[in-house]
Amino acid sequence: MVTFSHADTGTAESEWEASGLSILPELPLDPGELAAMTFIVLAAHPDDETLGAGGFLSRLHAAGAAVDVLLCTAGEASHPDSPTTTPDQLAAVRLSEFRAAVSGLAPGATRQFLHFRDGHLDADRDRIAAAVRETVEASGRPANQVVIVAPYRNDGHTDHDILGAVAADVAAQGGHGLLEYPVWYWLWASPEDHAWQSWVRVPLTPDEQRAKGAALLAHASQTQPLSDQPGDEALLAGSFLDHFSRAWETFAWHRPAGGTNSAVDAEQIFDAVHSGNADPWSYTTSWYERRKRALTLAILPEASYDSGLEIGCSIGTLSVELAARCREFVAVDASSAALARAAERLDGHPSARTLHLTVPQQWPEGRFDLVVVSETGYYLAAEELAELFERVRGALNPGGTLVLCHWRHPVSGWELDGDAVHAIARQQLGWPTEGLYREKDFVLEVLTAPAGIQQ
Question: Which of 3, 48, 375, 410 lies deepest, with the highest CB count within 10 Å?
């Protein structure tokens, strides 16, 4: 268990600034996606919501998202040795500060005080979980359109850890998204701790930073001394508050559960998509698609390959470019309508062929030096994706190249998202990442099969 005191000097913000926090990937939710969701923000004490997620609350308000803030305790135990202020008096002050802070950050948010005891949330786990579930139900949203925002479950403060664990359980059982915000972690942890390296950032606009700064000022009982007498010192030192003046906020992000579609649904779904539009995703005209295609081609470690395979080729815009780099090339798709257009594009490459297959249940014969899985992995159920990567393991020659490229936003109606696809590939295959490019909208990655070993 982590032990620390609020009076500890802790890790300086300059150390975190030099750690690489500023280049963590962004949370893959744009304003439109935020507006379509309900966010249930949990705070163990007044000021947790501002320290950990104040800028994000301001963004949610601007996006028009539905926000419910649940405060567990009044924080009455923050100054146990105060000679001037009783716990009841402090509770009244802190609740007033909480109302002012949240009203400034998200004026349209609903606020609910749960009346639990500061420092004793362990005894209230079930009642906290029930309150969160009631709020979810009252939102009227589908489960996967609800995101719970809560303290990081390993923050080091007992109340934070308990509340974070309850939130994680409710989110997992209900299929909701989860954003965990660290608070005391920045004090006791150091950049050598690996936990933060898998987190995401929410870059804050100047307006969002100003709103957060004003909300922090509202929590004067914590940032300023209650009096000049011993026991009334400010709880949050200036060096600690430095961690919350960054131009971004950081969260551990756990996406909501997706839908129930799988590979076997792909042909019907995508045939319908392509039947009414020759280019439903604007592959040929969108700068985003053209740029992503160029980056995919540029990340290939070899100038040419003897044999290449593309899984989920769609209408063949990337296939044509890949075929030019391969002596033999196979393009596979579950949609016969899309595959017909891919075949037309590949007509000038006699060594290229198309196959109408539903992977991973079906798989092309042969072995390959290059396998490309682009914008396809999240159209499989988790067990199908695992089977696909086993198929890749068996089909890729030693030293061969696996390229993965996927959209990072939630994919409506499907179980997985792009980040999950790449994480599963890395964990299951255990192959080294030889190239990685990641931005808010998509992630592009190269894995290399071990050389000299027949898979």
Answer: 48
365-423 tens-digit pLDDT? 999 999 999 999 998 988 999 999 999 999 999 999 999 999 998 776 677 889 999 99
233-259 per-position pLDDT tens digit: 999 999 999 999 999 999 999 888 765
Closest to 309 in 3D by CA, of 389, 384, 392, 368:
368
- Whole-number Å distance between alpha carbons of 12 and 405: 37
Which amino acid appears at position 180 of this protein? E
pLDDT top residue among 180 and 256: 180
Radius of gyration of the chain (CA): 25
CA distances (Å), origin 154, targets 11, 123, 179, 201: 17, 18, 13, 18
Measured from the Cβ of residue 333, the count of other Cβ atoms closer than 10 Å reads 30
Mean pLDDT of 251-275: 72
In this predicted structure, the answer to whether residue 1 has a pLDDT above a threshold of 70 is: no
pTM assigned to the model: 0.70
Write phi, then psi, for 291 (nearest 5 degrees). -65, -45
